[in-house]
Design a protein that fits this description.
This protein has an eight-stranded mixed β-sheet, sandwiched between helices. Strands 3-2-9-5-6-7-8-4 form an eight-stranded mixed β-sheet, with helices on both faces. It is elongated. It has two domains: 277 residues, Zn peptidases (Aminopeptidase), CATH 3.40.630; 154 residues, 3-Layer(bba) Sandwich (Glucose Oxidase, domain 1). The chain is an alpha/beta fold. Bound molecules: zinc ion (ZN).
Length: 455
């Protein structure tokens, strides 16, 4: 009998929570995140005990198992692993470069771009500097053949949105090697995609176009890119030597981690709202902001919902995607399987912009939801959330777009994100506990809002 009474009390207290007005429910989320939060400690474990976790690596295997067990321990109704075939590449043990002109010589701090071929020993060639890919066409094979091309266009400092500035300089990294190879270049150096002026090279994805013979590609720190620029200005015959021993392995099967909180409404319980981030990271630094923060945000959102006794109307899924950085096979596989299984996805939220102070959400949703959200967000004013903007949601959830346009990207302050992004500086110490916790609560708040608003 006592058990029955306890169960009934549990039921009523849970029902009360669900029926409370928005602002009271939201304050409970923030109280749980800030007063009893676990995301900061979870991030410490992910960064310090497991470390960086590139697709195909053993550390990603460990991280997948960590995520699976953590989500189960927080009371998810089910946790499953979804097989994903991913590329497996290693930067090897060497990334050395020097320059030499008539007047001076020195070290250059570089790191291979993800997927680069090795140099096959020391590669030495004259270096030629360009700011834009189009310049290569003008220079032509006669001036490029046999040389190393330095792509040295900085991210635009006048753009307030750093993500847009990153996007504006991105083609050098993604397509620089293929474009330069077309004109006979033997290697490329790409100015690191960061506003920071420092000595840390920032890696990132690149692809080789079909029909072009691949040439080695490395990121160079902004300080060294400036130094090399000065050397080339003073002596156009400046030479660069670079040595990288990257290795490409066979693809490997790894897994997305999927945790489910089942919806309690007969009509809508089967419909899915997804919260996700990406578990893989680049293999330098610790993947703390990118995207350890997003991973612990969404895990914490699930923990908070359970802790305050929230019972979702729809099915809430937390997905730890893999392979966002170099292929997005995690996001693509998830969307393909959802379609194949005839699941109904009604919304997806991604956190992949770092663990900084929350500002709001980007969305690709339709007008009705957008206007409702704009009105609701006033409830979050006291938590520092002001923005609902139309814009990019996230790489991992984008493949779901044919199934739902209700896609959301969590937007924290972005001014420092690219100081750390894809570099040795992306470590746990550079994430602020309180900012991280506010982010987790902000994501839980949006998820609960959508759960209540959407039919
Ligand atoms: Zn990321």
């Amino acid at each position: 009998m006592r058990q029955v009474i306890t169960l009934l009390l549990c039921f009523f207290s849970t029902a009360q929570v669900s029926a409370q007005p928005d602002s009271l429910l939201v304050s409970k989320l923030y109280e749980e995140a800030l007063g009893r939060g676990e995301c900061y400690e979870n991030l410490r474990v992910l960064c310090k005990d497991i470390g960086h976790r590139l697709s195909g690596s053993e550390s990603l295997v460990t991280a997948i198992s960590w995520g699976e067990h953590l989500l189960a321990s927080y009371g998810a109704d089910e946790v499953e692993l979804q097989r994903v075939n991913v590329p497996h590449w290693s930067r090897g043990t060497k990334a050395q470069a020097t320059f030499k002109s008539k007047k001076e010589e020195g070290l250059l701090r570089i790191t291979a771009l993800g997927g680069s071929v090795p140099t096959e020993g020391m590669l030495t060639a004259q270096v030629i500097e360009v700011k834009r890919l189009e310049e290569l066409e003008k220079l032509g094979e006669s001036q490029i053949k046999g040389k190393i091309v330095l792509f040295n266009r900085a991210m635009d400092p006048l753009m307030i949105n750093t993500g847009s500035a990153y996007g504006g300089a991105f083609d050098q990294r993604s397509d620089g090697a293929s474009t330069a190879a077309k004109y006979g270049a033997v290697g490329v150096l790409v100015r690191s995609l960061t506003h920071a002026l420092d000595t840390f090279p920032h890696t990132g994805s690149m692809t080789y176009r079909e029909g072009v013979s691949p040439i080695p590609a490395a990121a160079i720190s902004t300080v060294d890119a400036d130094r090399l620029h000065q050397s080339i200005q003073a002596d156009p015959t400046t030479q660069v030597s670079m040595d990288m021993d990257c290795i490409k392995y066979e693809n490997r099967d790894q897994a997305n981690v999927i945790a489910t909180l089942r919806g309690n409404d007969k009509q809508t319980g089967e419909h899915v709202i997804v919260l996700g981030g990406h578990l893989d990271s680049w293999d330098i630094g610790e993947g703390a902001h990118d995207d350890g923060a997003g991973i612990v945000h969404v895990i914490e959102a699930l923990r908070i919902m359970k802790a305050i006794g929230y019972q979702p109307r729809h099915t809430i899924r937390v997905v730890l995607y893999i392979n966002e950085e170099n292929g997005n096979h995690g996001g693509i596989t998830y969307a393909e399987q959802a379609e194949k299984n005839k699941e109904t996805h009604i919304a997806a939220i991604e956190s992949d912009s770092g663990g900084f102070t929350p500002r709001g959400y980007n969305t690709e949703c339709g007008d009705t939801l957008y206007h409702a959200l704009t009105a609701w967000i006033e409830n979050l004013e006291m938590y520092g959330i002001h923005q609902v903007k139309r814009g990019w949601s996230g790489v991992d959830i984008r493949p779901l777009k044919p199934q739902t346009t209700n896609l959301f990207g969590f937007i924290p302050d972005g001014q420092r994100y690219f100081d750390y992004h894809h570099s040795n500086r992306d470590v746990f110490e550079n994430v602020n506990k309180r900012e991280l916790e506010l982010g987790a609560a902000s994501i839980a708040a949006l998820a609960i809002y959508l759960d209540n608003y959407l039919p």
